[in-house]
Design goal:
CATH topology of the largest domain: Rna Polymerase Sigma Factor, Chain: A
Structural class: mainly alpha
CATH architecture of the largest domain: Orthogonal Bundle
Number of strands: 0
Strand content: under 5%
CATH class of the largest domain: Mainly Alpha
Order of helices and strands: HHHHHHHHH
């Protein structure tokens, strides 16, 4: 990959990778760190990575970097206590997007990641399999369970609206 192709990757994929990681981490600073580290890893491997495979490489690297960050933080204790984050109870919602975001945030990490890759980023099952390291049937099961949870959480549109 040339420097020009690398710069093109940054222009084309930085926002998508950031959005994917932000939806999972729900912290813009940490999401920016993951994206920056992912692009740094791409730069280190630019002679080995083909430009045509750069999008998949970036999402895979970002996903694994995010998982590593989450594991490190779990080993170091509860982040909400360290950063003084308090849980708030928002029992009244007026926007469907807020309800959906709240429901997505309650999904387990694996289900949320594969759902985001499939429904928000538009990846195929095979691509998600390569990015996450899960097999295709696991990916399908996680997506099914996530969608079923969201459907049960949100309920019918009449009750939400």
């Amino acid at each position: 990959m040339t420097t020009t192709e690398y710069n093109l990757c940054v222009e084309q994929y930085a926002d998508n990778v950031y959005r994917f990681i932000l939806k999972n981490l729900r912290d813009s600073d940490r999401a920016q760190d993951v994206v920056q580290e992912s692009f740094a890893k791409l730069w280190q491997k630019c002679s080995e990575v083909n430009f045509d495979k750069s999008k998949s490489y970036l999402f895979t690297t970002a996903y694994h970097t995010m998982i590593d960050m989450i594991r490190r933080e779990k080993n170091n204790g509860d982040l909400s206590e360290a950063y003084g984050i308090e849980d708030t109870d928002n029992s009244h919602y007026s926007d469907l997007k807020e309800i959906l975001d709240e429901a997505i945030n309650q999904l387990p990490e694996d289900q949320r990641s594969v759902l985001m890759l499939r429904d928000y980023e538009g990846y195929s099952y095979e691509e998600i399999e390569k990015i996450t390291g899960l097999n295709e049937s696991q990916v399908k099961v996680y997506i099914y369970r996530a969608r079923k949870f969201l459907m049960n959480y949100i309920g019918s549109l009449e009750t939400v609206i």
